[in-house]
Design brief:
The protein is mainly alpha-helical. The protein has helices at residues 2-20, 26-51, 56-68, 74-77, 83-88, 101-106, 118-125, 134-142, 167-170, 195-199, 205-212, 216-225, 235-238, 273-284, 303-307, 324-333, 346-357, 381-384, 424-434, 441-453; strands spanning 111-112, 149-153, 159-164, 171-173, 181-182, 184-186, 230-231, 251-252, 264-265, 271-272, 291-292, 312-313, 378-379, 399-400. The protein has a two-stranded parallel sheet. It is globular, with a radius of gyration of 24 Å. Bound molecules: heme C (2 copies).
Length: 454
């Protein structure tokens, strides 16, 4: 604490000297910027730890909820969609080919290596585990090691149902054991996960077809069209599956870390993080809780929500609401990861920061340390120079300034809500054109290095 206090003091005095000095030279400016940059970074870390005062017990409860709680959504994933039977396959009392570990990994599911007992680890290492047998997946579920999927077992030890948890989409693993198997990284979006393909394993696509008023082939086309790392969260309330050009609409799974101090959540700012947690648990995961949002009572905009009374969901018992405080505490504890040393060019990033904060105008919206607007963080499509298709599906009609911390850990799948820009270079080129910034090639490179560093 003292260290940071003195650092802050020293910066203040440097700034004071700088401000009160009339002899402004290049060298002084550079020195001052450098000192501030370093200190700001230190202060960010200090702020998160020091001022949030998170209750460790609540955080631990929230971690359990985030990783393992299904909120009773088995009623949907097994009761309606029968995905437990799809995993088992016909040979094990289900239907179809079943889901082997190899298939599960291929659709982006991850395995928590820390949940595997040493015997199992050595059996996998010696090649004595059949990764092509769905029965092995059932054993992995029994060990509670498939990230985001919870298996329930009856007295005879048979898989009786599965449910999903927040970790399915918002956690990945560090691949430390092998690809797709490693330590959990909570808050990191799983950009390998093909949610649509997983849902399409259902033998009851008719349910979704009826809900959305389309036929089964359409449901399957849509589910297979989302692609890895994407999901259409609005579909369940507005039934909008395609963009105006006919392509299939889906948004990138976002990071659930680095949200401290961020006002509105989601790409289009539906509400704050706590609002969205309740929305997702009830309306996307189909858990059993209570949820109210009168904005959904708009038949023109949200026909599916109106037909299914999603504006006023009531369940007894309520398996969600009581868990919201712990879930919030856990999410607030999920700091954005720090880019590994050597993953960006430090000198270029420093030059990029000067551009970001100044001539490139980025910091007029992405304000450090939260990297979204301080306060009301929404902008019109026009302001950021893109179409308003996705914005117009939200009650806000706008886009939320994405908090950029930990950008390096979610490069896969592209940028902006639907991944329309494949690389950071494309994002920068877009802003360069839209705001007529006239950035040189060197400026663009520097900005990119800075984005990789935050
Ligand atoms: C099926 C995948 C999936 C699951 C499961 C899921 N989410 Fe999400 N989550 C998404 C997607 C996609 C978005 C982006 C929605 C949008 O803006 O279109 C999102 C957005 C969010 C955001 C907003 C992030 C931001 O940058 O503002 C938070 C917070 C969040 N989810 C938390 C949760 C929690 C908590 C759970 C469990 C209760 C959960 N999610 C379950 C896919 C999922
Ligand atoms: C007028 C406000 C505004 C300004 C100025 C602005 N941004 Fe953004 N930025 C946004 C919004 C809003 C989004 C979300 C767009 C979306 O998801 O479709 C965004 C998204 C991004 C993303 C994508 C993040 C992700 O995970 O998908 C990056 C990177 C980014 N901005 C960098 C910059 C840079 C670099 C600059 C300066 C050249 C800049 N922004 C200027 C509002 C702004």
């Amino acid at each position: 604490m003292n260290k940071y206090f003195y650092l802050k003091l020293s910066v203040l005095s440097v700034m004071f000297i700088y401000l009160s000095s009339c002899t402004k030279t290049e060298t002084i400016t550079e020195t001052v910027t450098e000192t501030i940059t370093e200190t700001v970074t230190d202060t960010i870390i200090e702020t998160t730890i020091d001022t949030l005062h998170l209750d460790p017990v609540l955080v631990a409860q929230g971690r359990e909820v985030f990783r393992h709680d299904t909120f009773g959504d088995e009623a949907f994933w097994s009761g309606v969609l029968h995905l437990d039977k799809a995993i088992l396959g016909a040979d094990n009392g289900g239907y179809g080919d079943g889901v082997s570990p190899a298939t599960a990994l291929a659709v982006g599911l991850k395995v928590d290596a820390e949940a595997l007992p040493a015997e199992v680890v050595s059996l996998i290492q010696s090649g004595d585990v059949d990764l092509n047998d769905p029965a092995t997946t059932v054993e992995l579920l029994r060990l509670n090691s498939v990230v985001g999927i919870k298996g329930n077992f009856d007295e005879t030890g048979d898989l009786s149902s599965i449910g999903i948890t927040c970790a399915l989409c918002h956690s990945t693993v560090d691949d430390s054991f092998s690809e797709g198997i490693g330590k959990r990284l909570d808050g990191y979006p799983n950009r390998d996960l093909n949610v649509g393909v997983i849902v399409s394993l259902t033998d009851n696509a008719q349910f979704l077809a009826d809900l959305l008023h389309v036929d089964v082939p359409t449901v399957n086309t849509v589910l297979n069209g989302w692609g890895p790392g994407k999901f259409n969260a609005g579909l369940m309330v507005d039934g909008v599956a395609t963009r105006p050009d006919g392509s299939i609409a889906a948004n990138l799974l976002p990071a659930a870390y680095g949200l401290q101090g961020v006002n509105l959540a989601t790409y289009t700012g539906w509400g704050d993080m706590v609002y969205w947690n309740a929305f997702v648990a009830n309306l996307e995961m189909h858990g059993q809780g209570n949820f109210t949002d009168a904005r959904l009572n708009d038949a023109g905009m949200f026909p599916i929500a109106v037909e299914n009374n999603f504006a006023n969901v009531v369940n007894s018992p309520d398996l969600i609401t009581g868990k919201l405080p712990a879930l919030q505490a856990y999410q607030l504890s999920l700091d954005a990861p720090t880019p590994p040393e050597g993953s960006y060019d430090v000198a270029a990033a420093e030059r990029g920061k000067v551009l970001f904060d100044g001539p490139a105008q980025c910091a007029t919206c992405h304000i450090a340390p939260i990297f979204t607007d301080a306060g009301f963080n929404l902008h019109t499509a026009e302001e950021i120079g893109i179409d308003d298709f996705e914005a117009s599906r939200s009650p806000t009609g706008m886009y939320r300034t994405t908090p950029l911390r930990g950008l390096f850990a979610r490069m896969k799948g592209g940028f902006y809500h639907d991944g329309r820009f494949a690389t950071l270079v494309e994002v920068i080129d877009h802003y360069d054109g839209h705001f007529d910034l006239q950035l040189s090639q060197g400026d663009k490179d520097d900005l990119q290095e800075y984005l990789k560093s935050i």
